[in-house]
Amino acid sequence: MELTIGCTTRPFKGRPFAESCKHIAAAGYTDVGFVPVRAENKPEENAQTRKIAEDAGLNPSMALSGPKMNLGLDAAVDEFKRHIDSAVAIGVKWLVELGIGDEKYYEDYYELLRRCSAYAEKAGISISLKPHGGVSTTTRMLMDIYKKVSHPAFGISYDPGNIIYYTKGELRPETDIDKIAPMVTSLIIKDCIIKDDKPDVEIKPGTGLVDFDRVIGGLIAGGFRGPAYVECAGGNELDEINDNVRSTLSFVKDIISKKGK
User: Domain span at residue 114?
Assistant: First the structure.
């Protein structure tokens, strides 16, 4: 089985987008995530971002989003739609939503996701919500939101490392993987350890608490067909980071190959 495996710019610790793209392409990836997108981007800015990725031989296919619910529902929806417009202009296909933390906006947030999923569908893009604390801390919360939004352009971006991180290890990403699998439309490759009661995701996938065989195998068995993006890879010096990013691609491909048979 083959599916899109991309790498985000996060492992490269704030280096310029162009430099990160060169390292990601050299490691063997086809796609780059965490593409810089803003609602207020000018057309020439979007064109330049797309050109940088494509010149490196990468598809700028995934970006992050985070609505500004303090603007009020209608204004937040309008701002989010402009964010989608910029993402589409760059070539993004998957918009990964980070959720919100203020409970007073939760109901408005669900409505925003419903409206913007309909807009995204017409634009040829999908939205997926990752576990990121607040409204999307646990697997069960993600499943509940999926049902509330109930739109074909909306799904879950499963981030197993964040399940551990935001619950400090109290919950496991493997729990309920079979139930959430049909809802998952993107996967974040991220591991996590707990050291001195503090969670840490800045490690190489496969060296922490996440059972990637179980997570990826359960998703594939439930119909998941990608994409997957490496978010964290560990390492401090550039050579180490590049080695980790490269070997993580092989790590993920091996699991997919084994579980996809």
Answer: 5-259
